[in-house]
Amino acid sequence: MKLYIPTCTLNFNNILSSESISPLGFYARRGFGNKRFYPVCANDKEQVIILYSKYPRFEIEENDLENYPMVIEIETDDYKDGFFEKAKEHDGVETYLCYHTINLNPFHCRIYFNSYQERQGVLSKAEQSLENKFYKLYAPNIDVKPKEKKTFFGVAKDLFTQSEKDDFLWNPSYVNFKIKNEPINVSRDVLLDRIKGFIYCYLIGANSSVSNEVGKLKALSRKLRNTLSAVVNSPDKRPTQAQDDAILNGIREFNEIYSSIDEDTIWNKNLLELKLSDNPQGLSTKDAKNLLHYWGVYDAFCNKLPLRRVYDANELWSCLEYVSPETFSRVIDNMNSTIRKLEAKDNAQREKYAIEELLNVDDNLSLHILDTSYQSSFYKNLICSQFMAEYKSVMEENGVEEPLAQAYNGGMILRNMLGDKWDSNPASAYVGALLNHFQENSAFDLFAIENDVLSSFAAFCQKGDNIDRLVEYLVQVGFCNYKLAYGIYGATRGFTSLPKTFTSVLINGNKDYYQSFASNVWRMLNGIEIKDAVLPKASNSTSVIVESQLGSKIIENQNNVESKVVKQQKVVEAVNKAVKFENIVQSPKAFMYIFSSFSRITTTKAYKALDAVNFAGDEGSYTPEQFRSKIYSIVGKEGLKTQKENIDKAIELESKRQDPEAFLSILDNFLKPTDAAYKKIEKLISSIKSLNTTSYPQPQGNNVISQDGVEKRNLKPIHPTSSKFVEDANVNYFILSRNYLPIKMRETLSRKVITFQKGYAPGGKYYSNPLGNPIDNRSTIDHFKHWCFYDKGGYPPIVEGTYENKQYFEQLMQDLFNRYANR
After folding, report:
1. 720 burial level (CB within 10 Å; 0-12, 13-18, 19+)
2. Residues 29 and 88 in one domain
3. Which of 205, 334, 343, 658 could form a disulfide with 482 if both were Cys (CB 3.0 to 4.6 A apart)?
4. What is the pLDDT of residues 59-68, one digit of tens each?
5. CA distance 458 to 429
6. Are residues 682 and 799 in the same domain?
7. CB atoms near residue 292 (< 10 Å)
8. What is the domain extent for residue 759?
9. Residues 44-71 as b or e (16 or more Cβ within 10 Å = b)
10. Shared domain check, 124 and 28
11. Chain centroid, CA 730 distance in Å
12. What pTM does this model have?
């Protein structure tokens, strides 16, 4: 049976941050997530959630906030018997009560809005929310259920038909019943949030862990980058003796580790040994190599062999030989790219873990660790202690800060477990050193003991206040096993607090894998199997791309574009398809849509040549230059004679992003230009200027010339400032003014730069280490770039490292240098 929960759009992010909905009174008491939940007239009780057997139509009380009705649909078969209590039946509608939190799942839960505009507005805000982890996964389940306006014919039809309506107009008579006076108890909610946080973090950590060698390479790369950055940004651009030694030793160690695991390096080594051993004198490989060196022909010998190209960290020296931000960026990017390839290979060689093979939670919410890769007794006891937040008692009783309380609590658990063996056990000295580190600020060696559980526990005590800090710290010190530290974090901070930047690798990753994971977690936490646990497919009619300014503008004005509810879905589908193709870079299909919209073009030789080879179906990846050359080569000289101007125009339009003319040229393939809706859309978006174009070579005669400053005429002028980049409160506005950046990148960077600046403020993670993090403008701007593109152990970077994004960012870097650094 399906039941419907009335709520409002202001609660959307709150609900999808925890994937649950609770009675109103729970939110202020539970101690995690958002403390406020907005009531609606059809669901406004403190102790209970009210559900209906039919879809409720209700109004939102007017206030200054933008708020609209929202209804959640659930399937009762997904919950245990007795989970919902029937309160009454009135006018064909059954009303049910639930005195506890209702967990949601993406298999059968649906979320409805009254209009496409309201849905679009909510999804746009969800895109900006760090806590809303599920809006993309639930997008196929988020739909519109508009209220139909009854005509005279419709009213007459209802009078003479016996068909039962699936919705009803709510009024207070539907909630005229008594509610049990039960005290609000949120302890189960708190426990479930921490268990769920532990499960997600542990699995993400298990799947993202790397080999010891890759872990060491990641730590070395960070040290080398920081040292080189300090040298490049120093006044004399020369390394000190200590820096020179650090770089030399770091490169040597990097190459040694890299050559031991890189397939191409190993292949080269085997080939050389084979060729050297095959000599007429019967010399050993070592002697043959020494002889060729003595004769001075070893390099020539190697050059004649089909050796594979391999990475050599010695190229890092070039950024000191030719000092420039560009050279520094290039060599660091090469090093990071090399490590990412090894990491990807590492992950590809092993299957993702099945959660049911690592962990289980029984009906009493007791944790069972099934992972046999380590001795889990202390770890399990520690995790269960974190579930109960026992460290907080230490804080309250002794008046100490949380890191020390965490270390003390974990130490006491281990001491009680070891009993008389505590004093002689190496763990005793290790925990004592950790406590001294917090109490007396003494040095602490994280790897002083060969025990992954204890070192992970110590790492959490040091950096466990924030998941991003913990992830960065584990990479920095060379950890390769992330699951233990991540698990402690999840058990302590809970699921709701996890940002989507951390969870997206799992939730928005492989759908089949997440489908199996989510159904198993549901069984563990809810004590019941889900039937037909299949993730729904995305629907073209509802999956409007929220990042598109043009698409958002149209959907926000949907009632003006098409007032008839029955026709709105057709318009939304057409807009969604047009947005999708307009947003793709160098898309043959988008080009053909645009080209075919030109008057009488389909009868020309040029169009027929492209159609004959099915250019629209070409799924290849092209640079701007390759894209133009491909089209020219297909069309040929005969076609270019008459249609070159139109072809260039279509290429130019295809290259633009968020451009009304390009968008309309694509839209007319899905919506007739003679339709009233199309004409209203054309009028609506005609005032919007193209936000940007790709960095695209433009034709001049029969040649191609470069165009570096695309759309620079509309940029606000750059006024140099004496402010520091990491202190200037206006830097986010400056980034927003750079209209050559794609709108999503521009808005993301304008938010993230504020987070970055906090790292250099007192108490920030860079503030305490000025030697490793110079604060001159050029250094911090360069650091900002690497921070944005940094791939944190396989988690999505702030800016995806595509060719186009790097081109945009280079222009932004130059503008930032002009504003802050070039004086």
Report:
1. exposed
2. yes
3. 205
4. 998 877 889 9
5. 13
6. no
7. 17
8. 715-821
9. eeebbbbbbbbbbbbebeeeeeebbbbb
10. yes
11. 26
12. 0.69
